[in-house]
Input
Amino acid sequence: GELPKRPKGSDCKSAGSAFGGSNPSLATMNEYLREIAIKLAREAGELVFARREGQIEVAGTKSSDVDVVTKVDKESEQLLFSRLEELRPDDGFLGEEGREKNSKSGLTWVVDPIDGTVNYLYNLPHYSVSIAVVSGDPRPESWQVEAGVVYNPSTDEMFHAARSSGAFLNDRRLEIAVPPPLHLALLATGFAYSSVMREEQFRILSQLIGQLRDIRRMGTASLDLAAVAAGRVDLYFERTLSPWDHAAGELLVTEAGGSISGIGGLPVGREGILAGHPDLVAEFVEKLSNIGGDRSLAEIPGWEFDSKDVK
Ligand code: IPD
Ligand code: CA
Output
């Protein structure tokens, strides 16, 4: 389909600056950005899905031997980068596979060209293209997510949200689940690529699993956040994520009525992210703290922050 028309009266340069006086509302601008994200996620998703028919080649490894990148991750990022160059030349870009461009407009696209790369490699039909557009400094501690989409091409599920306009799965408006008591909550989580960190994550989970309904490790952070937004799980918690893993999913959760929080008073981001109903999140933060699951990453013995892991 065609791209949506730009909202009238706006040069669409920045969600922050383009809306004085007779300019369109913030919601209109964000909806316009969301339409771009939807269109591009579908394009990249179709490419990624079609390439899965063939042999998937590992192009290299990143932070550790199990942190792989395929040729298709790179191809998908290239497609998104060049389409955004045409459509939004003044916006910045931050992508998992290394593409980076500073913003002139105040907006930056934060992109995971394939989230759930290991699922993709094994042909488990649970991976996504995740695209967010953020205003301000493109760091999780300070950004404001204006629009975000998470697309699973295997199921053709398009999760999308524009700030102040709600979150949707295809045409259906999303709302997070009514919170159950913590011991009946289903928790989604994920593991880092670093073995030291995984062992620590496992240790923390071993102390939680008896006090929850159950735990899911589905392999795609952006889809875990989408699942919280859709009421498919009650809580999501992970540490050591990168910005592109959670930028779009974060907005899905908050627009569906959930909350996003850091742990142990630390900012949301690499240190940790927690998503779910606000009451449940508050309860879980406390539980984590009681078992020492919220000490800062720097305090974890043997864990060395690997800068290769972050661009
Ligand atoms: C990973 C997935 C996984 C999460 C990891 C991420 P990638 O992203 O989202 O679910 O547990 O922390 O790094 O490498 O597949 O794009
Ligand atoms: Ca990712």
Q: What stands out?
A: The pocket of calcium ion (ligand 2) is lined by residues 96, 112, 115, 244-245 (CB under 6 Å). The chain is about 30% helix and 20% strand.
